[in-house]
């Protein structure tokens, strides 16, 4: 098993009242799975993804990731675990504007102290694979949305994570670009990468093996496709 | 990793040119002052590093303990120490004594120059690294060596051996040699070195323990240095025994000080001429640091203001696995890069400053440039780290989940409170600074142009020697001349001392003494509160009438001015004189100090200066030639010494170069504060471009938008004004109260400056706001 959420609660206190963002969430994810998370706006999809990605904490429950109890780890150990195994893809791409395509992709490696020569090889591989070798010296502003998202995914993949978390990766793209990204995910999944994506589109959700439906911070339904 | 940091930093600099320029310019303008003070510190450490035996040359310094436990440290020591060390201690190879003398003027029959003087013994040239270019060291009484520079100034050539210079008290002195140029940074800095025999010939001080000069010891190559300490203890013990017999209450103790560690002076030794004390150096450096701090505020402020745009980057990097310390490192790298670029700019500015504001109490160069650049670079890195630290801490704290979602409102970035107070502090600091400088300027100008204490206008001074009467008589015929007075030395210079007593039985008091005639007192327009001017006299004998100031009455307890007139006092313990008139207290010497008792007496033997008052404004050159023509008749071999009193006093008191330097400093302070404000205002208006566009489309008028945009900044400036004026006034009041004679704090001047500073600030705000408000909204919205 890759990760397991047990009775996760997350809340904020507004005017003395607890507002629950996640309510008793239980989830098991096996290595190599492809999961979609769906639900109406405000249902807690991004919140759940951030909890899984360790970008955000939770208030109650247990979270085990590869036999590590995430809720017991210190901030620093969590960051260590996270940067080794998890890659993030965002709807707004979130590339660093001041860096070129090449440098954006290279960034995670810098934080993992990968040697320079090795870095070069890994980035070159990735550029090759995504067919963006010609664009490596451009800045994000000089790319189309789809191309930017490709770079975003390349960046998420560069450190060879076990798990990719994607929050509406196709939200800002047209349907053709979206399809390309989905094909890419399927391809990656076949290579063994576990993928959890948030999406509003039934069509994209169908690429996954399992769909989780959220409503008001609660898992309402899990459907195996 | 670091390379990546710098790459991003570099691109960030280019992307935000305005902010980069503000930061680099601000730091670049303030760094030179810090570099200059670093240079002073380094050069202090490079003092006296050219002597041949640095490892075994020592100066002997003295601790004087009084019988109540007080201890005063002197750089000086008694003359006998060197003699005893040389005679009785075999470990000592050479011991030599040096006496510094002040206020020397030498004359070569044509011109008189001030010279910086020390008395030396023949061994001096064996112990120290000074070399003679020609001639021999001075041994005989009334012989000296001088620098090439002075040789050129006196004789127009460096071949000066055998020439003669005259000192007013010591007579003719023969030049026996000319010194090779030497490094200026030595505590033995001097223009002429006179034989110790000359000193011995004229010195009247015979007290064995009096601290008159400096003792230096050169130990034998393999001598044990501890021997010297033992020797010093023994010498001190002997001297103290001797002194007890002579009933002196003080105990002497001696210490050795390696020649290389004389400067900087950590102990604040007395009599330590030409050695910078660590305290002074630190104060200097403190000012420079304060300026850097102001520029650093800009950096902090602007970086935080832009934090919104940096937040996303922080989030992304954290998601990419960056730990907090790595982000802190990155932001600090950026600050260091800015500091480095500022260093480059600052160095250029420093060179320009050296060119255009030569202030001679600074050292503008040092020996070891590696050390200098090492210090500069380390210092810049330090400044960068300092400036980068606060923004780095704040920026790196952002949580990626929040910033990437965009739920962090702009106001939570970098604390508006912190930023606002930085702006206020900058403006308060810069206005206070400018106020203080203006007040000093005002004081110096007052001292330079004052005619209230004594009259300088239309006065010319001519030095006379011997019999001046014929000259005086003939000059009286000149149609321009109103009146000629006679005086020992003009006011505003050094004064002669005398003692005064109410009568034989009373304690005496010190008084300043001027030999003067009635004409001089008229010329000076002194204000009489009672009695009359000295009786007009042309006789050869000393008069029994004196004019005194109110302070003398107070000191001697002679009652009111009216009562005092006609009373007699005892002058110099031997002559009864009658008070003929009392003048108001006025500043005749140093503005810092309240006036001493003053005595003016007709005393023809001491008249050295003709104080000539002209009827109207005259042309200096023409008038001088008229006087010179008459002078030539009586003194065919001597040059006329002639000065325009008003100009002379102006030159003496107005520190033009220093003021220029301080003015530059003020300007930099103001520029930094304004640039900081400009940066912040620009940032805030740019952030609101879209909002302004929408408001305009909805029909808001330009004035409404300008008001909206500038409101919060105007409020800041008004707060700064409210603090700055009273605080500035208080500081100025403190400084001006250091002067006994001053025009006071010029409130009008402060208010004017104040209005200037704040109008400039307001203009900056208005300019930016109006610029943003009149821009075409449609265009703006489209680019969004
Ligand atoms: N810090 C917070 N304080 C209060 N409420 C919050 C906070 N963070 C999130 N929420 C609320 O939690 C709910 C879930 O938010 P979340 O971003 O997970 O929704 P989502 O399912 O991703 O929606 P969308 O599809 O629009 O992205 C929302 O109702 C949001 O208003
Ligand atoms: Mg969401």
From TrEMBL, chain A:
Cleaved signal peptide residues: none
Alphabetized Pfam families for the sequence: ABC_tran
InterPro entries assigned to the protein according to its UniProt record, in alphabetical order: AAA+_ATPase, ABC_transporter-like_ATP-bd, ABC_transporter-like_CS, MacB-like_ATP-bd, P-loop_NTPase
Oxidoreductase in keyword set: no
GO cellular component, one term: membrane protein complex
GO molecular function: ATP binding; ATP hydrolysis activity; transmembrane transporter activity
Keywords: ATP-binding, Lipoprotein, Nucleotide-binding, Translocase, Transport
Matching CDD domains: ABC_MJ0796_LolCDE_FtsE
Superkingdom: Bacteria
Domain ABC transporter: 3-225
SUPFAM superfamilies: P-loop containing nucleoside triphosphate hydrolases
Family: Belongs to the ABC transporter superfamily. Macrolide exporter (TC 3.A.1.122) family.
Protein name according to UniProt: ABC-type lipoprotein export system ATPase subunit
UniProtKB/TrEMBL annotation, chain B:
Alphabetized InterPro entries for the sequence: ABC3_permease_C, MacB_PCD, Macrolide_Exporter_MacB
Topology within the bilayer: Multi-pass membrane protein
One GO CC annotation: plasma membrane
UniProt key word Transmembrane helix: yes
A GO MF label: transmembrane transporter activity
Positions of the ABC3 transporter permease C-terminal domain: 287-400, 664-776
Keyword Nucleotide-binding assigned: no
Subcellular location: Cell membrane
Protein name in the entry: Putative ABC transport system permease protein
Organism: Lacibacter cauensis
Lineage of producing organism: Bacteria, Pseudomonadati, Bacteroidota, Chitinophagia, Chitinophagales
């Amino acid at each position: 098993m890759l990760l397991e959420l047990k009775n996760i609660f997350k809340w904020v206190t507004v005017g003395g009242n607890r507002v629950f963002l996640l309510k008793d969430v239980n989830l098991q994810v096996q290595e190599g799975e492809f999961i979609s998370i769906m639900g109406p706006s405000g249902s807690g999809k991004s919140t759940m993804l951030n909890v899984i990605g360790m970008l955000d904490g939770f208030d109650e429950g247990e979270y085990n990731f590869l036999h590590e109890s995430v809720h017991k780890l210190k901030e620093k150990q969590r960051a260590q675990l996270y940067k080794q195994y998890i890659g993030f893809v965002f709807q707004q791409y979130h590339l660093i504007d001041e860096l070129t395509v090449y440098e954006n992709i290279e960034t995670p490696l810098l934080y993992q102290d990968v040697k320079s020569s090795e870095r070069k090889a890994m980035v070159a591989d990735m550029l090759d694979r995504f067919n963006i070798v010609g664009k490596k010296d451009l800045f994000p502003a000089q790319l189309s949305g789809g191309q930017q998202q490709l770079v975003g995914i390349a960046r998420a993949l560069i450190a060879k994570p076990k798990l990719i978390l994607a929050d509406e990766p196709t939200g800002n793209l047209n349907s053709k670009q979206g399809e390309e990204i989905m094909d890419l995910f399927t391809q990656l999944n076949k290579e063994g990468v576990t993928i959890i994506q948030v999406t509003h589109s039934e069509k994209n959700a169908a690429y996954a093996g399992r769909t989780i439906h959220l409503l008001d911070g609660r898992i309402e339904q899990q459907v195996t496709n | 990793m670091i390379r990546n940091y710098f790459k991003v930093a570099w691109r960030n600099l280019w992307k935000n040119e305005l902010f980069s320029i503000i930061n680099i310019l601000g730091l670049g303008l303030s760094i030179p002052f810090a570099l200059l003070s670093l240079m002073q510190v380094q050069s202090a450490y490079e003092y006296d590093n050219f002597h041949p035996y640095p490892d075994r040359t020592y100066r002997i310094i003295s601790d004087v303990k009084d019988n109540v436990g007080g201890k005063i440290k002197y750089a000086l020591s008694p003359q006998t120490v060197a003699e005893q060390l040389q005679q009785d201690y075999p470990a000592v190879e050479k011991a030599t004594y040096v006496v510094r003398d002040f206020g020397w003027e030498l004359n070569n029959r044509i011109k008189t120059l001030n010279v910086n003087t020390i008395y030396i013994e023949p061994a001096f040239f064996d112990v120290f690294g000074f070399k003679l270019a020609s001639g021999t060291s001075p041994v005989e009484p009334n012989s000296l060596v001088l620098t090439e520079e002075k040789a050129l100034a006196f004789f127009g050539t460096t071949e000066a051996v055998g020439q003669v210079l005259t000192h007013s008290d010591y007579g003719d002195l023969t030049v026996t040699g000319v010194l090779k140029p030497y490094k200026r940074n030595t505590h033995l800095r001097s223009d002429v070195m006179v034989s110790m025999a000359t000193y011995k010939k004229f010195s009247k001080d015979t007290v064995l323990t009096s601290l008159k000069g400096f003792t230096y010891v050169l130990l034998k190559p393999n001598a044990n240095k501890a021997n010297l300490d033992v020797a010093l203890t023994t010498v001190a013990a002997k001297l103290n025994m001797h002194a007890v017999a002579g009933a002196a209450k003080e105990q002497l103790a001696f210490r050795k000080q390696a020649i290389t560690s004389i400067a900087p002076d950590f102990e604040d030794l007395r009599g330590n001429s030409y050695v910078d004390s660590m305290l002074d150096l630190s104060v200097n450096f403190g000012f420079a640091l304060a300026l850097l701090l102001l520029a650093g505020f800009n950096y902090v402020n602007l970086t935080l203001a832009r934090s919104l745009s940096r937040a996303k980057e922080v989030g992304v990097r954290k998601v990419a696995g960056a730990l907090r310390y790595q982000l802190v490192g990155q932001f600090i790298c950026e600050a260091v890069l800015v500091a480095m670029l500022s260093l480059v700019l600052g160095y250029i500015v420093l060179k320009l400053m050296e060119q255009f504001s030569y202030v001679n109490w600074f050292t503008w160069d040092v020996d070891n440039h590696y050390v200098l650049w090492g210090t500069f670079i380390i210092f810049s890195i330090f400044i960068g780290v300092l400036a980068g630290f606060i923004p780095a801490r704040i920026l790196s704290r952002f949580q990626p989940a929040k910033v990437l979602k965009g739920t962090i409102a702009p106001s939570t970035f970098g604390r508006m409170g912190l930023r606002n107070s930085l702006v206020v502090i900058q403006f308060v600091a810069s206005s206070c600074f400018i106020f203080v400088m203006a007040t000093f300027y005002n004081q110096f100008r007052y001292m330079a142009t004052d005619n209230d204490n004594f009259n300088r206008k239309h006065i010319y001074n001519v030095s006379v020697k011997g019999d001046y009467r014929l000259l005086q008589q003939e000059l009286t015929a000149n149609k321009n001349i109103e009146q000629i007075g006679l005086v020992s030395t003009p006011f505003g210079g050094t004064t002669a001392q005398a003692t005064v007593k109410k009568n034989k039985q009373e304690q005496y008091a010190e008084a300043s003494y001027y030999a003067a005639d009635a004409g001089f007192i008229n010329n000076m327009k002194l204000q009489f509160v009672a009695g009359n001017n000295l009786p007009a006299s042309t006789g050869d004998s000393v008069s029994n009438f004196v004019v005194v100031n109110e302070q003398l009455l107070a000191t001697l307890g002679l009652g009111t001015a009216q009562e005092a007139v006609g009373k007699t006092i005892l002058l110099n313990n031997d002559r009864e004189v009658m008070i003929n008139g009392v003048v108001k207290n006025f500043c005749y010497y140093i503005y810092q100090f309240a006036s001493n008792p003053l005595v003016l007496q007709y005393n023809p033997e001491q008249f050295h200066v003709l104080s000539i008052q002209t009827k109207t404004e005259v042309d200096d050159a023409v008038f001088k030639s008229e006087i010179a023509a008459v002078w030539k008749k009586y003194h065919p071999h001597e040059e006329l010494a002639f000065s325009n009193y008003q100009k002379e006093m102006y030159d003496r008191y107005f520190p033009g170069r220093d003021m220029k330097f301080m003015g530059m400093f003020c300007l930099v302070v103001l520029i930094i504060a304004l640039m900081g404000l400009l940066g912040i205002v620009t940032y805030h208006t740019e952030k609101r471009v879209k909002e302004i566009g929408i408001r305009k489309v909805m029909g808001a008028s330009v004035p409404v938008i300008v008001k909206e945009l500038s409101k919060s900044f105007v409020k800041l400036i008004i707060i700064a004004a409210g603090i700055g004026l009273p605080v500035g006034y208080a500081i100025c009041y403190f400084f001006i109260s250091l002067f006994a004679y001053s025009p006071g704090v010029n409130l009008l001047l402060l208010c004017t400056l104040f209005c200037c500073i704040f109008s400039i600030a307001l203009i900056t705000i208005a300019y930016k706001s109006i610029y943003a408000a009149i821009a075409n909204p449609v265009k703006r919205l489209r680019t969004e």
